């Protein structure tokens, strides 16, 4: 009975871990908590539909295939195949984890500023909300090629931290930071509406950030 721990540190209450490869349920595409058009005019319905039903669905499907192959290799004691499957598990597993967080980080009732403990932590660690917003935007704009900008929680140091991850690298699995807010800067997240002008997309996305969700994640990871 062997478990894959590559992504199992993800918060189980918010995103299901990949879990065990023997006797497990297949991963499924999570439903969006709002309609595809709900985030307009900031992110249009066509982008949301393609992003969710095509791109995220592909990560889920490919993750299931990779895990099945891994399970077979594990049963055979085929270490070479197990090693060769790690990039597919990381990419597709990360894509599934990242997008499962991303959808809940957005809301048609989002925008504005956070309140309570999260706001106090942002002021403590970044000086002000304006400074935090500027830094996360700059890090996200600066991602070369495809990737993500993140607000994460450093549990060892007890503070918030901004980071960028390439491609679909999952924040916690690659940096140890617990993900609170992720901004997808792959072109499929914005190109149909904002073309190649990533800064315009990043300016718009702050209008739909679900601070209640981010605050809930922060409260959970502090326990």
From TrEMBL:
Gene Ontology molecular function terms on file: manganese ion binding; superoxide dismutase activity
Keyword vocabulary terms for this entry: Manganese, Metal-binding, Mitochondrion, Nitration, Oxidoreductase
Gene Ontology cellular component annotations, sorted alphabetically: mitochondrial matrix
Enzyme Commission number(s) of this protein: 1.15.1.1
Class in the EC hierarchy, top level: oxidoreductase
Keyword ATP-binding: no
Domain of life: Eukaryota
Record flagged with keyword Metal-binding: yes
Primary location class: mitochondrion
Residues annotated as domain Manganese/iron superoxide dismutase N-terminal: 26-107
Compartments it resides in: Mitochondrion matrix
Residues making up the signal peptide according to the UniProt record: none
Reactions it catalyzes: 2 superoxide + 2 H(+) = H2O2 + O2
Matching Pfam families: Sod_Fe_C, Sod_Fe_N
Domain Manganese/iron superoxide dismutase C-terminal positions: 114-217
InterPro entries: Fe/Mn_Superoxide_Dismutase, Mn/Fe_SOD, Mn/Fe_SOD_BS, Mn/Fe_SOD_C, Mn/Fe_SOD_N, Mn/Fe_SOD_N_sf, SOD_C_sf
Needed co-factor(s): Mn(2+)
UniProt binding sites for Mn(2+): 51, 99, 184, 188
Role according to the record: Destroys superoxide anion radicals which are normally produced within the cells and which are toxic to biological systems.
UniProt subunit comment: Homotetramer.
Family of this protein: Belongs to the iron/manganese superoxide dismutase family.
Designated name of the protein: Superoxide dismutase
Native organism: Alaudala cheleensis
